[in-house]
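Task: fold both queries, return C-alpha cells.
Query 1:
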Amino acid sequence: MRQIIEHFTDDDLYKFTMCCAVIDNFPRAQVKYTFRDRNDTVYPAGFADELHRQIQALETVVISNDEIDFMKRRCPYIPFWFYSFLKGFRYDAGTITVRQDDMGHLELGIQGCWTNTILLEVKILAIISELYYMMTGQNATFDMEKFGRNSHAKAERLIRGGCRFSDFGTRRRASFAAQDTAIAAMTFCQNNVPGPGRFIGSSNVYLSMKYDLLPIGTMAHEFIAAIGGMYGPQMANHLAMKAWSSTYRGALGTFLYDTYGWDIFSLNFSEDYANMFRGLRVDSGDNAQELERIVNKYHSLGIDPATKQVVFSNALTTDDALTIQKLAQGKCLPSFGIGTHFTNDFEGVPPMNIVIKLVAAKITESWPFFNETCKLSEDFDKNIGNPAVIRRFREALHIV
C-alpha cells in the first residue's frame, strides 16, 4: 500500500511544542504509551502487519528546509536550537510494538526516551484511522465533493455566528485528503464569507504551511500525566506550568487543566500563573459548568475573565460551538478547536474513537523501574490507565 505519512510536519503543533519543552526540562525521561480503541474495533486480518510497515516507513520521513522556514516564521516562540534537533531526528520503529489478538483487536505500545517517542502518537493514530478505511474498503464510499461542500457550510455558519475556530482533526481524520479538503474549504470561507467569526488556523503544521495558516496548539494531557507519574499528581499541574513557562516565557499560554480534574488544578492555579497564562482549554465535562468554574476562579483571583481566552475542544460539533459561543460571549474570549467533526464526517461511515496515552514514566534511564501514571478527566469514560493506578490517583487527590 502507498505510504500514508509523507511529510514530517504532517502532525499537530502541540507534539513539537511539547517535545521542545521535554528536551528543555526532562531530557532523560523515559516513558511508555498504550493504544486504546474505545469502540473495541475488530480490525481486518493483516492490519497489524501493514501498520508495522507504515510505521517502518516513518523512518524515511525527515523535515525539509521549507518546513523549518515556515515554523520559524509562524512559530517565533520556538527556540531555534530545536530545529537543529529536528534536522537530526529520525523515527525509530523499534520503540513500537504492534499486534492483533485472536479476535482481531489491535494492541500497540510505545517505550523509549520521551524526547524520541513524543513525536509518534499523532502520526500513528492518523495512520491507523486512514489504513482502517483503506483495508475495509470504506474509503471508496467517501464523497469528497460533498464533504468539501459540507466543510464550507460548517465554516460559513461558524463565521456568521461569531465563532473563532480551528481545525484539531489530524489524529482521527478519515484521510490526509479529507483534512486537506476541509482546511481548503474553511480557508476559502475565511477569505470570502463576511461575519464576526474567524477560521484562525489548524493544528496540522504541514497543512498550515500549505495554506499559510497559523499553526494552533500548546500541550496535551501527556505533559501533565508524565510529570504526575514522575512526581505525583498533587503538584503535577504546578510543575507543568513552571516547566512550560521556563521554556516559553509566557508565550503559548493556554493551559490544558483537566488531566487530574478541576479541583486539584484550581488549587495549583495561583494568581501568578493565572496572570501569566492567556487562558485555559476545556476538553471534558459539561461545557457550561466548566465555563462557570473558570469564570469564578478568575474572579476569586481578582482577574477579569472577560480578558481571558477559553478554548473549548470537547468533541465539538458546529452546533455545539454555536451554542457555547452564545453562552460564553461577554464572560470570556471563547474559541473552539474542532476535530473529528471537521475531518471525519462522511455519511454512513462512523469515525474511529482511538487514543494513544502515556501510562508510565521515569525521570532518567538509570532508574530500574517506571512509575505508572494515568489520565483522569471530568468525564469518567475518558479516564486512561491501569484501573488500580486510577484508583490510587483518585485517592491521592481525594476524588470521591
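Query 1 returned. Query 2:
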Amino acid sequence: MNYLAPSILAADFTCLGEQVKRLEEAGAHYVHIDVMDGMFVPSISFGMPVIRTLRPCTELKFDVHLMIEEPSRYLEEFAACGADRITVHAEACRHLDRTLDEIRRLGVRASVALNPATDLGMLEYVLPKLDMVLIMTVNPGLGGQKFIPYTKDKIRRLRCMIEEKGLQTDIEVDGGITLENVRGVLEAGANVIVAGSAVFQGDVGKNVKAFLERMGKSYEEKAGK
C-alpha cells in the first residue's frame, strides 16, 4: 500500500493544530515531522515541545525525522512525547546499529535516512532491523527544493536490495515531491511519500486528496489492475 506523510515544516505555524486536523480529515496516513538542529543541516526547526503539543490534536501516526547530530542523545525524549516512528540519518550516527536497537527498545518503529549522495552500502548490515528507509531526494535542511533526478535510480536499487533479502521494508521519499513526479517515484519502488509545499500551499484538504488519487492510480497501474 502507498502512504502519504505530509511534512508540517511547510505548514502555517499560526494554526498548526488545525492544519494537522485537516490532514487527518482529508485522509493522510502520517504526519511527517522534520526536526533540525542547525548543525547536521543548516536550518533549525522545532523539537519535543511542538510534538508533545500536537499529539492530542490527532490520531495520525507521527513520523519523526531527526536531522540532528548524534540523535541517540534524545531518542527517549522523542519517544515519550509521541513519536510512532523515528528516522535517524546514517551520516549522523557514530554507532548506527546501537542507535537502532535503542529505538526498538523504546517500542518505536525504526528508520534510517540517506542523503542523496550517500551509498546504499551503508544499509547492508542493518537493513533487517529497519521498518523503513528514507531516501532523501533533495539535500536536507531547506524546504522548496527541486527533486534530484538520480535519486530515482537509487530508489529502484534499494527496492531490489529489499526484495533480494525477502524483507517488507517501506521506502519513503522526501524532497521536491509534487503531483507531477509522485507517480515516477512510486513506480521506482517507493511507497511512503513526504510532501510539504505541495500539500500546504493552497487548500490543504484538496491537495491531500489530489495526492491520494494520483498515488492510488500509480499503485493500480503498477499492480496491473
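Both queries returned. Flag for query 2: The first strand starts at residue 3 and ends at 6.
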